[in-house]
Amino acid sequence: MPSFDEVLKEAGEFGRFQKRVFFLLSQTGITFSSLFASVVFLGRAPENFWCRIPGAAELSERCGWTLEEERNFTVLPLHLGNKSSNGECERLDVAWDTSISCASPLAHYGNHSTGNLPLATCHDNWVYEQPHSSVVSEYNLVCGHAWMLDLSQAILNLGFLTGAFILGYAADRYGRMPTYLLSCLGVGICGIIVAFAPNFTVFLIFRFLQGVFGKGTWMTCYVIVTEIVGSDQRIVGIVIQIFFTLGIIILPGIAYLIPTWQGIQLAISLPNFLFLLYYWVVPESPRWLLTRNKGEKALKIMRNIAKHNGKFLSPHYSEITISNEEVSNPSFIDLVRTPQMRRCTLILMYAWFTSALIYQGLVMRLGIVGGNLYLDFFISGAVELPAAFLIIVTIDRVGRRLPFAISNIVAGIACLITAFLPEDIPWLKTTVATLGRLSITIAFEVVYLVNSELYPTTLRNFGVSLCSSLCDLGGIIAPFLLFRLAAIWLELPLIIFTILAVVCGLLVLLLPETKGISLPETVEDVEQLSSRFGKHGKKRKHQDTSSYI
Question: What is the pTM of this model?
């Protein structure tokens, strides 16, 4: 019986069929990155708002004031009396009598007593010039409630973390495509509910669920793409992340054209319903079918792939084999039971955590130069594009481990240099910090590929999802780590980033090289990776110098 990789080579390792599936599934990267970064535009701070004095609404309506006139009557006296107050988080502790003069509502307090008027903290009576422009103005997430916007992003990351466990397990047990389609449906439905949430509690609940399903779409589509191509074409795992960056670049354009946060939320959520059409054009992963003892279905799909690729699969193939390993439901114990699997799992978990923590930390610290939110965000996405292209031109020439290690070490060194550069040359600090971000972006993208290549088919989706869940944990911790340490010393977070990145760069050198090697089908295959590289490395290198570093 032929192996799966032998049949795949005969059917075409990256023919017309795989290119079509790759292009279709890559669109998921655009919608996922838009969800990931949407808080920047959904939670824009309102430009003009103030706290309304009791009775002001009735008086404003009777007097026919514009919002600007009401603001002047409300905030100007407060500012005159207290130069440090702008009327956003506190108000004069008075009540306007609706029967008094429209021209001077505070006249009865005396012309010179404004500074002595009592003040009160504003709780829920804010007025916004654009009340539906962002989540902040919709749910009053200002002043003492501002931390709740950060909570909404933490809840989204918690959803990503939960989705990694639940849907990663589901994809390995019930199939890649059923999990992918269910996740797309979930993202779309939850996204609509988020857009029309009647209160902030409902908003948080369904934003969490949107995170759960969003993680399912991204991780599952990534695994499908890497499983249907040959070992020499697994670079698609890097290329697909270009679409993630495209989503980052497109998002500010969407936000610029759509003035309300509900419109932006719908624009990034509704496209997920279109992905349900993939049910008729994207098949189940044949590798996964083989692990579930569904060889006939797998062979049928392989014949279809060969037909679309203009190839001919031998009619003598009646069965495909990948292993004699007993199929079982995946668990964390399977990822750490054997020495090589344990080493890979622990190092990859640390690499995911470090990449996410440093990446988000540098983004928050760098704060792209300029005051235009849309342009700044566009530039921040464009900075990431060179990372994918650098990986594409090097990874199949020098392998995975070396770029993985070097990118982490360079990111760490860049952070260290940035920490000690003088403040009077900001352009140099910005340049070096940008180099650090570019380097950690490369590490971030390589870890996706290496993670999928180091786990057997029976555990691949679960393993990638579990390890990448540390990415979400890093995303939750990053802002707290950055701001708390910066309060002690502004550059202290960069020192921590340096240590984490350099240690990661050294650890990944302990991983097996996967360049040119077929995807492992069993745990035994993973355990033999190190022996192949070690005992038989020279022999393989003599036979095919392009297989290893």
Answer: 0.78
CA dist., res. 467 & res. 349, Å (int): 5
What architecture is the 332-532 domain classified under in CATH?
Up-down Bundle (1.20)
Considering only CA atoms, which of 143, 137, 141, 36 is closest in space to residue 363?
36
Token duo for residue 98: 């609706």
HSE-up of 126 (CA within 13 Å, CB side)? 29
pLDDT mean across residues, the chain: 79
| Residue position matching structure tokens 């990874």 | 395
Residue 533: phi and psi, rounded to 5, are -70, -30
Spatial distance between the Cα atoms of 319 and 86, rounded to a whole number of angstroms: 75
- Tens-digit pLDDT profile for residues 475-533: 788 767 776 677 677 788 889 999 999 999 999 998 888 777 777 777 777 777 754 44
Distance of CA 306 to the CA centre of its chain: 35
CATH number for the domain running over 12-48+145-311: 1.20.1250.20
Q: 281: which DSSP letter? A: T
The pair of three-digit structure tokens given for residue 313, joined into one six-digit string: 């699969």
Alpha carbon of residue 440 to chain centroid = 14
Q: Indicate where the chain has its CATH 1.20.1250.20 domain(s).
A: 12-48+145-311, 332-532
